[in-house]
Design a protein that fits this description.
- The protein is of the alpha/beta class and 268 residues long.
- It has a single domain, classed as TIM Barrel.
- It contains eleven helices and ten strands.
- Strands 1-10-9-8-7-6-5-2-3-4 form a ten-stranded mixed sheet.
- The longest helix has 18 residues.
- The protein is globular.
Amino acid sequence: MSYIFRMAVLFALIMQASNAAGQNLTYHNDIRNRQCCLVIAHAAGGIDGNPYTNSQESLQGNLALGSRVFEIDFSKTRDGEWVATHDWENWRRQTGYSGTIPSFAEFISFKLKPIEAGAIANQYTPLTLDYLEKVVIKQPDIVIVTDTKYDFREMVMFLSRSTLHNNLYYQAYSFEDVDFLAQHKISKIILTIYKMNVVDVDQFVDKVNAVAGKITGLTMPVSFYALHSAKFSNIKLPIYLHGGPGQINSRELHVRMKKLGVAGFYLD
């Protein structure tokens, strides 16, 4: 039985069980739809129980299941090529690479071998920009939400000149990043707060409302939103949540967060 068929059967069973329990949710793949629940396939989506692969197999497997919105992590190789991987430390664990940062040739020569608890051990093929561009040509309705642990502005300038640009929503990590993107005529912006030190939530909400015309969504950790959901009730933006795979993939969590006004989830 193929991975895609197994996942399709599992997804159908989950939907039936949840609907029978009265937990009716409507998942969708249209980032323009501000109603719950948008599915954002985190790091190209989970595969075989393995998160954070950013692999060809995870992208294709989740495309086959109907996903159209993918969060992809971008990192730069030693020789200056931008590629899709969560970060180099995680990539080294997944590949067994003994150096620090690989060259592009080294990056594409390694298979990813993540093994999460309870996951199926398998090998996956890394994602390059060339591969993503070919996928987008065949599937032009794909949306890619960018993420990077490295030089944000350099990544933006590089990707904005690529053929992926029209399919990209750029994650900004600060209000300064929002201004930078807006200055470069980029309007598909999601402000994500995981790199921000938000101490005064009321002040933060005021700042978000002040730039609401420049951004298309707001992303935050599920734990942060659970603590402060009431303060975000007046924000006229869709709010998306992320968290660890064992937490964020819970349908029961989605039911509770939908009642609190959440519009979507980064799922693994």
